[in-house]
Amino acid sequence: MTKEKSTFVYSVFWNCGLITVGTLIQAIALKSIAIPHNFVPGGLFGVGSLLYYRTGWLDPGLLYILLNLPMFILGYIYISRRFLWYSALAMVLISFFYQLIGFQIQIGNQLYAALVFGAFLGAGAGMVLRSLGSNGGLDVAAVILNQKFNIGVGKVYFTFNIVLFSLSLAALETDLVIASMIAVFVCSQAVDYVLSLFNQRKLTFIVSEKPQEIADKVMTHLKIGTTMLPAVGSYRKQEKTVLMVVINNIQLKRLEEIVFTVDNFALFIVENTFSVLGSTFSRRKIY
Questions:
Q1: CA-to-CA distance for 184 and 161, rounded, in angstroms?
Q2: What is the DSSP string of 250-266?
Q3: How many other C-beta atoms are found inside a 10 Å radius of the C-beta of residue 269?
Q4: Who contacts 13 (Cβ-Cβ below 8 Å, separation ≥6)?
Q5: pTM higher than 0.85, yes or no?
Q6: Of 210, 264, 219, 263, which is closest to residue 245 (Cα–Cα)?
Q7: Cα distance between residue 125 and residue 139, in whole Å
Q8: What is the pLDDT at residue 280?
């Protein structure tokens, strides 16, 4: 990643833009699909929705703000002011957009609605999480637990939502709760997809009798570096050099062509990787 691109990605303009578009998409999903179908979203908005369905107090958007207050106090104490302000912006915007939206997306089938709702909500949440903030609510607790105790964010969401949907079963129809669970599952997949969309890389290992020639051509034609790893074959005990190359999807086919043009008997191994930090790749995310 160049210095100019890195600076732009960490700029206030970029982060506020991601948060604005992401919260708008989430608000549309919640107001125009979830509420008409009485779905229970995951996280604190799900708690607010459940309270609204059972009591009629305020509305899910305002309840979400109230439930967020203790979370932002924790975020201020344990994370950083920058994270807090970006997350506060996301919370305010999603509540504002929620109040502003007055239309419904007409989807009659409950299953179809759950799938569309989950995809929309996950896409919006993923965009916000690509910023230096969060969607507020459970995101704040998840980040704190991850930084302090190395507890995975997914585990926090899973545990919380299990409790939430268990309570929902006692208060709502079983079919509705199952549809909500489907929506939350689709949402989690959409979040992962959006987060990895621009970060996905391919980790390749190349075992060849001509490692230096391949490395030279890779650096010349693809303008990327390679790493030479010493290895020993287990059968003949012969020393070898394994090339390690981190590359994007677009360049992968060109790398494959270079390898087998130089050595038709090379071994070419490719693995997916979604977190490559440092050097010329993405900077480590600091909240």
A1: 9
A2: HHHHHHHHHHHHH-TT-
A3: 11
A4: none
A5: no
A6: 219
A7: 10
A8: 55
Which parts of the chain are beta strand (E)? 201-207, 227-232, 239-247, 267-273
**Domain range 201-273, its CATH number among 2.40.128.10, 3.30.70.120, 1.20.1250.20, 3.40.50.11540:** 3.30.70.120
The total number of residues shown for the chain amounts to 287
Neighbours of 7 (CB within 10 A): 12
In 3D space, the residue among 231, 226, 221 whose CA is nearest the CA of residue 257 turns out to be: 221
Is-contact 143 286, C-beta < 8 A? no
Nearest-angstrom CA–CA distance, 124 and 104: 18
Residue 275 in tokens: 């977190």
What residues contact residue 221 under an 8 Å CB cut-off, 6+ apart? Answer: 254, 258
DSSP letter assigned to residue 177? H
48 vs 64: CA distance, rounded Å: 6
Phi, psi of 172 (to 5 degrees): -125, 170
In the chain, what are the domain boundaries? 3-197, 201-273
Question: For residue 30, what is the DSSP state?
Answer: I
Residue 287 has pLDDT above 70, yes or no: no
Query: 238-285 pLDDT, tens per residue?
Result: 888 899 998 877 788 889 999 999 999 999 999 877 666 555 555 556
Q: Output the six-digit token pair for 187.
A: 């949402």
Closest CA to 245 of 261, 269, 278: 269
